[in-house]
Amino acid sequence: MAGWLALSDGGMALGSGPDLERGCLMFDLGPRQDATTVLMEHGEGPDALSLIHDAGFGLGLMLRRGATLARHMLPVGAQAASGGLVQFRWDAATGHWSLDLSGGASAWGQGAQPLPRALLAAVMAGPRLRSTTLRWFGLAEGASVATLPLIGPRTPIATTKGTVTAAELRPGDVVLTRDHGPRRLLSVQRHDLPGRGSLAPIRLRSPFFGAACDVLVSASQQVMLSGVEVEYLFGEDAVLVEARHLADGSCAVAEEVAGVLPWIALDLGCEATLLSGGCALSTVRGASMRTLAPFEIRALQTMRRKSLRSAA
Question: Which domain of life is it from (predicted)?
Fold first, then answer.
């Protein structure tokens, strides 16, 4: 992520300057019941911006500049009613735009124009109309890292020199992995993300998930799970689960924080599983190891809770 330019709810105001030639608008949506919802709408002089969800079609981001109206549509139907992160990217130099919903839905096209800075500043300060299901929104310079596996700066990482925090790691350090043994770090990337809504950090609590201490990870960080329950339900020695799906208020907790939080991504040049305080964390998304769907995770959590009660 090149950096945040503005965040809603007093998080960060958009400064003065020319209209924006490129960028990424993000909207974090909660679940909705209405068939048609105006999620956000604001007009500033001759310009206006709105985000609409219709259960019969999907999402639409409308931009009016004077007499010109640009429609950017994402035909996801009722899928958007369950919420998620919407991202609108544009680049006036190439004319390209894209509209994405977390989970894989995407649309794109040509004809992108610069977005009026005055309009965006007014939207970030507080749009005229805002649905209660729009949890937060923001404006960034570059592509989003919201779906990357990220760990907190204080997350313990096993290395050949002992356990250190992620913030202490530097390129060239050798970390210990579950599947490839010692591996040299190619790069340590630092990112900032809002700490609310679907991006709220997840605290994996000790002693669950093999953790000897609490471990803070991003909602999209994949955690490796193993054990008799995994083998019984899925016929696998180990599986991956996104941290957001583990948050049950007990073993793993979503901790909402105002503003942005610092995160770290570790690049080992290959798919690997880091050792962190007893937890095993994947360094890439789309790893070859099986990733559980939400309905599969519910079955696993139910069986694990029964095992814990029996042990008690």
Answer: Bacteria
Residue 286 within any structural domain of the chain: yes
**pLDDT at res. 1:** 44
DSSP code of residue 26: E
Burial of 16 (0-12, 13-18, 19+ CB in 10 A): exposed
Say if residue 17 is in the same domain as residue 129. yes
Please compute the mean of the pLDDT values over residues 255-267 and round it to a whole number.
Answer: 88
Contact 9, 130 (CB under 8 A): no
Question: Does 145 reside within a domain?
Answer: no
Q: How far apart are CA 72 and CA 225, in angstroms?
A: 40
Domain that holds residue 95: 4-140
Give the CATH number of the domain where residue 274 resides: 2.170.16
Decide if 6 contacts 138 (C-beta within 8 A): yes
Report the distance separating Cα 264 and Cα 262, nearest Å.
Answer: 7
What does the alpha-carbon distance between residue 247 and residue 85 come to, in Å, rounded to a whole number? 18
